[in-house]
């Protein structure tokens, strides 16, 4: 029996009452979470999927199978907006629609956030009409990647999301699954994976029948100017990981060096993936991925995003300027 600690409440000190008091799965937790000595809920492990049961298209694509990597599938949608403001408006509508759909369909909405600029692009969701119309109690929030730093550190993706988004919505505190920042990178990755397994077992997260990996309802991915997504960087061996659900990196080319990240099989098992990319600084990587004259010598992590479900690109004019 393995145990995990992601059900412990977040340790951010300023967490507001409305989040702290509506914790669904925990007894009422007082404010000012100073390392509460609760016993973590145990998370029974499920058998790991065998390699042979993994959809072959999810395996790392070598240069020999480059066409598979870089082809934009016909059902993929690329939307280009005049401004980042317009992008944010459309993104809010899209997320609210999926929230409604999954809340009605299965009584829960599992949403994966990224760090960086993505959080700012979610700002319209915390405004009218969505702040009142979205059923936030159905939301379960995860991170595609997290930096292994304290939760109140400026580099923390949780901290960023808390300040820019989570603190503004009435989401139950027990539905926010932050990493255990008291662990090493390796320990935090294992702990997060154990938590996911528990949540798959109790059906908070669905399981992909095709791949045996968790199937999140919506994965919101940002992209770095180098084409990295989550903490999967170009040329790094982690992009080839096809067994683990969550892994760790200690030599991230972008600081801070220690991070945990979802692996490609998890990302690509999602029901919906939105790639949210703004700014001319990202135009080259967008061009490499979506342009017609693709260079087969380059494999960017973003080119390996090929979900079981639907992929949608939200670009502003700057990001699309080289298409
Ligand atoms: O380090 C990271 O970078 C990417 C991209 O960030 P952005 O600020 O260029 O949008 C982000 O998606 C990821 O979550 C984060 O850890």
TrEMBL record:
Identification of the protein by name:
Probable 6-phosphogluconolactonase
- Report the family membership: Belongs to the glucosamine/galactosamine-6-phosphate isomerase family. 6-phosphogluconolactonase subfamily.
According to UniProt, the reaction catalysed is: 6-phospho-D-glucono-1,5-lactone + H2O = 6-phospho-D-gluconate + H(+)
Recorded GO molecular functions are:
6-phosphogluconolactonase activity
Q: In which pathway does it act?
A: Carbohydrate degradation; pentose phosphate pathway; D-ribulose 5-phosphate from D-glucose 6-phosphate (oxidative stage): step 2/3
Q: Does the keyword Magnesium apply?
A: no
Record's keyword annotation contains RNA-binding: no
What the entry lists under CDD domains is as follows: 6PGL
Q: Where is the signal peptide?
A: none
The record's Gene3D superfamilies line, in alphabetical order, gives: 3.40.50.1360
Question: Into which EC class is this enzyme placed?
Answer: hydrolase
Instruction: Give me the Gene Ontology terms describing cellular component.
Output: cytoplasm
Keywords on this record?
Hydrolase
Q: What Pfam families does the record point to?
A: Glucosamine_iso (PF01182)
Residue ranges occupied by any Glucosamine/galactosamine-6-phosphate isomerase domain in the UniProt entry: 83-313
């Amino acid at each position: 029996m393995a145990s995990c600690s992601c059900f412990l409440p977040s340790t951010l000190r300023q967490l507001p009452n409305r989040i702290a008091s509506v914790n669904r799965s925990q007894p009422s937790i007082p404010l000012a979470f100073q390392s509460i000595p609760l016993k973590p809920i145990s998370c029974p492990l499920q058998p790991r999927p065998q390699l042979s049961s993994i959809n072959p298209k999810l395996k790392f694509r070598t240069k020999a199978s480059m066409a598979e990597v870089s082809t934009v599938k016909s059902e993929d949608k690329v939307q280009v907006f005049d401004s980042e403001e317009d992008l944010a408006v459309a993104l809010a509508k899209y997320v609210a629609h999926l929230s409604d759909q999954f809340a009605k369909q299965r009584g829960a909405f599992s949403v994966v956030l990224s760090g960086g600029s993505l959080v700012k692009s979610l700002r319209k969701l915390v405004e009218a009409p969505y702040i009142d119309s979205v059923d936030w109690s159905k939301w379960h929030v995860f991170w595609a990647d997290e930096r292994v730093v304290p939760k109140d550190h400026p580099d923390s993706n949780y901290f960023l999301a808390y300040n820019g988004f989570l603190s503004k919505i009435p989401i139950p505190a027990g539905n926010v699954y932050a990493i255990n920042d008291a662990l090493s990178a390796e320990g935090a990755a294992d702990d997060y994976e154990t938590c996911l397994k528990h949540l798959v077992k109790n059906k908070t997260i669905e399981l992909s029948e095709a791949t045996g990996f968790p199937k999140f309802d919506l994965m919101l991915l940002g992209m770095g100017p180098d084409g990295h997504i989550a903490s999967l960087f170009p040329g790094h061996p982690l992009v080839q990981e096809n067994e683990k659900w969550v892994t760790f990196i200690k030599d991230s080319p972008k600081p801070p060096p220690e991070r945990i990240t979802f692996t490609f099989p998890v990302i690509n098992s999602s029901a919906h993936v939105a790639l949210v990319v703004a700014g001319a600084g990202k135009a080259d990587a967008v061009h490499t991925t979506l342009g017609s004259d693709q260079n087969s010598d380059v494999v960017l992590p973003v080119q390996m995003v090929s979900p079981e479900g639907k992929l949608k690109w939200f670009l502003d004019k700057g990001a699309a300027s080289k298409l």
